[in-house]
Each structure stands twice: as structure tokens, then as C-alpha cells.
Amino acid sequence: MPVDAISLEVFKNLFASVAEEMGVTLQRSSFSPNIRERLDFSCAIFDAEGRMVSQAAHIPVHLGSMPASVEYAIRAFEDINQGDVIVLNDPYHGGTHLPDITMVSPIFAGNGIAFYIASRAHHADVGGMSPGSLPLSTELYQEGLIIPPVKLKLSGWTNDGVMALIIANTRNPEERTGDIEAQLASHRVGERRMMDLMAEHSLETTQEHADALMDYSFRMTEAIIKKIPDIIAFGLITLKNSLQ
Hints:
The chain is of the alpha+beta class. The chain has helices at residues 5-29, 33-36, 60-75, 160-168, 173-201, 203-227, 230-243, and strands at 41-47, 52-55, 85-88, 100-109, 112-122, 150-154, 157-158.
């Protein structure tokens, strides 16, 4: 299927629907009010290089920083296999604050990884010096458990050691287990939907439209930036330099 304006719009919504359905699954299967009621979570789709293809209308701060987490997750392992799920929350590896736990998993098609799916959810507690893991701290270690990129799932099998370590550092292990399983459930849904999408439209067509969407986004962003008056652009550059 050649890429044109109509097919591009169709695939834009197809990709977005996968991320949206991941979010619905995460919300409905979660245990904590923080995820179920506050909707403090985000889901997105990335290509094989870790570039964001599509996102649902979730939390902007999650989605703005999630590409960095996906990049670190991919770099952390020489071998990523089908059924693997990488988990992390380290702010120095693309995370935000420690309660935001990110999961990244590959979608295999053809001869290798075709896409990645990712989710980030604000867990109600990940340890630290006070309940909720948002204390008046003076260093990161006081806030809670720091999770570098590590595999929570290995070829579909749960890494019991990693799971036990995370759960042991929370004040509500039953709720934390439920929310982690909810994130994993959202990834299973995302994987099935992406596999269905590639089966119906072919891997090549799906990847072509993913690339075309990123190119279109680049052109749109570039066009908007060109419309910004020079005085505003100068002010933004000055502000950026002053903050560095």
C-alpha cells in the first residue's frame, strides 16, 4: 500500500488506538486509585530504533521523557528477546521521579524487532523515607527504590528476583503487585494489537507508514517554528542559554 494522505491518516489513528487500548487495559486492571482514578499513566509505540511513532492522550511529562527511557532500555542489553519486558525508574536513565515506573517490551516481526511498546505509571509507593515516595528529601536515595534498566520478564518468564526486590521495597505489596501486573497486561494487549496490525497490512507497509508519520511530524514542527517571530525566538534562545 503506497503512502498517501488518506492512508497516513488511517495509520495515525491505528497506531494511536493501540496506545489508547493499552491505557484502558492498564486503568481497568490496576489496583491503586492513583492509576485507576487519577489516570496517572501513559502508553506509547516506538519503532525499532526507539523513535516514538505514536502516543495516547495521556500525561505530557511522561510522554515527553519516555523516549529517553526507551533509548536507555534498548542500550542496556545486547540481546532483547521476544517476551522480554525491561523495567526502570531511574531519573538518570530517562525517568522522572521514582514512583513513575516505565516498562519497555519489543514487538518481533520478520527477522527481528519491528517496534517497541512502552508504558509508564505512577505507583503509589516505591519505598523511601515516607509513604508515597515523595518526601522532602535532600538526595535521591531517600525517595525510594532506584531501578536501573533490568529485565522483569525473560522470554515471557517472570524474573522472580527482580519482582521480589521491587515488592519488598514498598509499603503495600499487594497493591504494588497488582499495578505491576496491570502494566504487564497492557503490554500483552499492545503486542497483540501490533501483531494484528502487521498481519493485516504487512510489516513493510506498517513500517513505511510509521516512518512517514515521523517525517510528517518533523515537517509540521519545522513549519510552526518558522512562523515564530524572530523576537520570540531570540527570547527563547536567551532563556535556554540562561538556564544552562
